[in-house]
């Protein structure tokens, strides 16, 4: 078993620091030890992990793939030891991916609070509207909405979001109020990042309009400027609805609320850092969203 592990940590250290000398100093071993450990590892794998020249080291394609696995192995080993030593207190490094809409305003404050609570925990929160592969990209946790299809992942519902269709009173006074979904075709629609608007009973509508933007805040500003009708998550509204600056359109056809999920690989199922983050989201995220929506929590 020890022989199978031999060289993995040395390889990861050399790859990270780009030099046998620097890696040896950081690892607390000789350059000879680092070089021989890596040679034995390559011999066992029957694959070259590094291109070596007198001036530089460079990962081979196989080495790049193997390095990601090694990093996860080392991290999970350290987490297992830390979990026992700290009796399950979250520690290590937690990588989270989330969309800008939810992440910047709502998830980031919860993450900051968790980081303050657990000083042994370091956290990276990556905001990206692309749906990344958690396992391939090495993430511990994602916050996502809607339907989930990846069987490799575990999902815990932590909150919900409501979609609302709306326009300014001035726009509706000039152009009239839509009577049904089909009636939206004669209106200026402010188009966001989703191709279809959602309505009750799984009805959908593909909006068309002269103005498009993938920012919910920008859509709200356009609606306030009397440019047309938009559909956005309710948490973008603030007090615009309550104070009459915007009005609901087709409110009887609002769709059911969409679930917001904390999603994580099955192997992270019992990790203290993931469990703590999921619980923090479940406890705090609904109140944050309700407050931004102009609703009581």
UniProtKB/TrEMBL annotation:
Pfam families: HTH_1 (PF00126), LysR_substrate (PF03466). InterPro entries: LysR-type_TF_proteobact-type, LysR_HTH_N, LysR_subst-bd, WH-like_DNA-bd_sf, WH_DNA-bd_sf. Keywords: DNA-binding, Transcription, Transcription regulation. Residues 11-60 form the HTH lysR-type domain. Gene3D superfamilies: 3.40.190.290, Winged helix-like DNA-binding domain superfamily/Winged helix DNA-binding domain (1.10.10.10). GO terms for biological process: DNA-templated transcription. SUPFAM superfamilies: Periplasmic binding protein-like II, Winged helix' DNA-binding domain. One of its GO terms (molecular function) is DNA-binding transcription factor activity. The keyword Transcription applies. The keyword Glycoprotein does not apply. Belongs to the LysR transcriptional regulatory family. PANTHER family: HTH-TYPE TRANSCRIPTIONAL REGULATOR, TRANSCRIPTIONAL REGULATOR-RELATED. This is Transcriptional regulator, LysR family. It comes from Novosphingobium mathurense.
């Amino acid at each position: 078993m020890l022989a199978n592990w031999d060289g993995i940590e040395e390889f990861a250290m050399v790859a990270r620091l780009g030099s046998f000398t620097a890696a040896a100093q950081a690892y607390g071993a000789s350059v000879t030890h680092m070089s021989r450990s890596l040679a034995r590892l390559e011999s066992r794998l029957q694959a070259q992990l590094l291109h070596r020249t007198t001036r530089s080291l460079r990962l081979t394609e196989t080495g790049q793939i193997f390095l990601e696995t090694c990093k996860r192995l080392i991290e999970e080993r350290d987490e297992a030891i830390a979990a026992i030593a700290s009796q399950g207190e979250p520690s290590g490094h937690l990588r989270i991916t989330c969309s800008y809409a939810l992440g910047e305003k709502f998830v980031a404050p919860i993450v900051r609070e968790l980081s303050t609570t657990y000083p042994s925990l370091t956290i990276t929160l990556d905001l990206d509207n692309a749906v990344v592969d958690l396992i391939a990209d090495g993430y511990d946790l994602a916050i996502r909405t809607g339907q989930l299809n990846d069987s490799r992942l575990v999902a815990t519902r932590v909150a919900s979001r409501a979609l609302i269709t709306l326009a300014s009173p001035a726009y509706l006074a000039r152009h009239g109020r839509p009577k049904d979904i089909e009636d939206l075709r004669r209106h200026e629609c402010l188009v966001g990042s989703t191709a279809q608007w959602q309505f009750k009973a799984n009805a959908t509508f593909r909006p068309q309009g002269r103005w498009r933007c993938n920012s919910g805040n920008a859509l709200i500003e356009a609606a306030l400027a009397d440019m047309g009708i938009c559909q956005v998550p309710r948490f973008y509204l603030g007090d615009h609805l309550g104070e009459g600056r915007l009005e609901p359109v087709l409110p009887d056809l609002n769709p059911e609320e969409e679930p917001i999920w904390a999603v994580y690989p099955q192997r992270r199922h019992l990790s203290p850092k993931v469990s703590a983050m999921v619980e923090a989201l479940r406890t705090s995220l609904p109140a944050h969203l309700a407050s931004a929506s102009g609703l009581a929590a």
